[in-house]
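Check out one such.
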Amino acid sequence: MAAATGLTGPDAGSIRILVADDQGVIRMGLAMILDHEPDLTTVAQAGDGEEALRLIEQYDPDVVLMDIRMPVMDGLVATERITTANKAAGRSRPAVLVLTTFDDEAYVLSAVRAGASGFLLKDTDPDLLVSAVRAVHRGDSLVDPASTRVLLERCMELERQVGGTAEPAPAQPDGRWIGLLGQLSEREREILVWMARGLSNRDLATKLFVSETTVKTHVSSVLSKLGLSSRVQAVVVAYEAGVVRPGEAEVRWD
């Protein structure tokens, strides 16, 4: 089992990051990229999910880069436990950014449902990795809207095939969400739709001619009313409920 490594003395005001991956070379490479940025600091590294949970208690990171496939405890279980602990404590950090490959696409929806704030391919461009960490730290889950939408659609199609459903998803919203969707105001519904289409808080503020603070208030209300913990979970709900359909531009509420 890979040994955990803790790093102390981060600069005040830095975004504190824990990297969890069972491959030491990948951990070190990610840390080097992140530590090169003046506002990012890798405070700890872990070789499995169990070590990650222990180091979270010790180093209090803002963001966790979480591999999915790890020994002892995988990233899905660790992410779910982080989310559960955050809810119990009434906090939103650390945010979890899942590291995946297209070979792991069947796990992506599970990671999102477990509470991950977003996900990236392991071979992503370093600049996108840095932007992603900053994005989930400030609450913008969808760090690569186009890739996120495509990957979510592929995952849902795979899930449908595994479930043995030959027909396309129904146009009507999933019955599990009808009551909750009905609790959203018109502006909150609009926010949900544009989140599903990949807009960040800043993009939403510009499009709707409101402040980012107002957008964040609406997003928080959407998540609260739907019983969700992250924006990316809201996007999955939008697809599952038929509000936004894969490959279509239409928005459906009834």
Remarks:
- Confidence is low (pLDDT under 50) at residues 165-174, 248-254.
- The first helix runs from residue 24 to 35.
